[in-house]
Write a structure and sequence with these properties.
The chain is mainly α and about 375 residues long. The protein has a domain of about 260 residues. It contains 17 helices and four strands. Strands 1-2-3-4 form a four-stranded mixed β-sheet, with helices on both faces. Strand 1 and strand 2 form a beta hairpin. Helix 9 crosses helix 11 and helix 11 packs across helix 16. The chain starts with a helix and ends with a helix. It binds 2-acetamido-2-deoxy-beta-D-glucopyranose (NAG) (3 copies).
Length: about 375
């Protein structure tokens, strides 16, 4: 009958729409996964099959020279796994000596607040804690932990939308546990975080949140940017024309304003995780992390972390698109080129703790 036919066609039409929407959604999501590394690259490079890092011959014994790979702009020499243990040990020695430096105290020491405990994800099955820092491939780490928790057999099988659904992904935050359980885990579990060059990180956050992402996270452009512009843009005339959006200069002035920004940060809530210091996110002087990985050497660090946590036989870190994590000095110079030395020095003063704690060289090329 005609009625039944119509019904069928309507159903078919509806299915078509659902399919279209699904295709759109998955396209968007796979972009985000790549973007999580901090750079937008073609979606297809994500599908490049995993390639093993070719081990180059160590140039010389690491004790004699400053290792090339510890300098963010020269990550070319690839060390062996034993070398990497050495790199990791050196980083932890540096971290603890900077924590002990009393002149940097107010930049390095933060209380283990609920804000910090909210950043830390728990894998009880393998006794691992992971402090999440944005724009360093942390979606991939969450997937690794989800596999370890037994919810999925491999990283590839985890649907993207589930990773960020903290109700359903089976990865509890440390803040959800009782004080006794928190203390126990902090003192006995394997703990790690990933960091990157602090200024490059801020550029990445600026680009991602204020330049290219307004459609899916409109609050950065519509709620946060106007507040920063009103307070920090120099020219009144420009302030009226805030439609042009947040400039990197406005952002730098806001970030470098140690006292003035406190009220704004409270108003912005958890969105500030994209630009507050690593010290504020993960309390690295209060929590004794086992390993601090560097984004610039993520390939080596991921392998080292899996091994140090005793899980390298159980899971592997997803392939990292080549070149994507490398420090780009040209980019940093370009972004800071129009900004006054005074503003850059104030920014550095605010982020100096992160530079020192994690061994990133002071960016003299911007400051002098
Ligand atoms: C503490 O940090 C300051 C600032 O970076 C530095 O000048 C000083 O030498 C450090 N002190 C020690 C004992 O390392
Ligand atoms: C940290 O303390 C020093 C003085 O010891 C002060 O000059 C600086 O402004 C403080 N920095 C912050 C971020 O509070
Ligand atoms: C570094 O950044 C500059 C400016 O953003 C860009 O043109 C260049 O392609 C980047 N270099 C690499 C190796 O990614």
């Amino acid at each position: 009958m005609g009625g039944a036919m119509r019904h069928h066609w309507l159903l078919l039409g509806a299915c078509g729409w659902v399919l279209l929407i699904l295709v759109f959604v998955t396209k968007f999501i796979s972009f985000r996964a790549v973007d999580d590394y901090g750079e937008r690259v073609g979606g297809q490079s994500w599908t490049v099959p995993a390639h093993k890092v070719v081990k180059a011959l160590p140039v010389s014994s690491p004790e004699k020279t400053v290792p090339k790979w510890s300098q963010p702009d020269q990550p070319s020499a690839l060390p062996t796994e034993a070398d990497w243990q050495w790199v990791s040990d050196k980083r932890m020695e540096l971290l603890s000596s900077v924590c002990d430096n009393s002149s940097l105290r107010n930049l390095t020491h933060v209380p283990i607040s609920k804000f910090v405990l909210d950043r830390i994800f728990v894998c009880d099955k393998h006794k691992i804690l992971f402090c999440q820092t944005p724009k360093v491939g942390n979606t991939q780490w969450k997937k690794v932990l989800m596999v370890l928790n037994g919810a999925f057999p491999t990283v590839e099988e985890i649907p993207e939308n589930l990773v960020h659904d903290h109700e359903k992904n089976g990865l509890p935050r440390l803040s959800s546990l009782s004080p006794k359980d928190i203390t126990h885990r902090l003192s006995t579990y394997f703990k790690f975080l990933i960091v990157r060059d602090p200024f490059e990180r801020l550029i990445s956050a600026f680009k991602d949140k204020f330049v290219k992402n307004p459609r899916f996270e409109p609050w950065y452009k519509h709620d946060i940017a106007p507040v920063i512009i009103r307070k920090y843009r120099k020219s009144h005339r420009d302030r009226e024309g805030a439609a042009s959006g947040l400039h990197f200069e406005d952002f730098v002035r806001y970030l470098g304003d140690a006292e003035g920004r406190q009220r704004l940060d409270r108003q912005f809530g958890d969105y500030i995780i994209h630009w507050v210091t690593y010290a504020d996110l993960c309390a690295p002087c209060e929590i004794h992390y086992s390993v601090v990985g560097h984004h610039e050497t993520l390939g080596q660090d991921a392998a080292h972390i899996l091994k140090a946590a005793g899980i390298d036989q159980l899971v592997s870190y997803p392939a990292i698109p080549p070149g994507i994590t490398r420090y780009n000095k040209t980019k940093v110079e370009t972004y800071f080129s129009g900004i006054s030395k005074r503003d850059i020095r104030r920014l550095y003063a605010r982020y100096q703790g992160d530079f020192n704690l994690f061994g990133y060289p002071k960016p003299d090329f911007l400051l002098n």
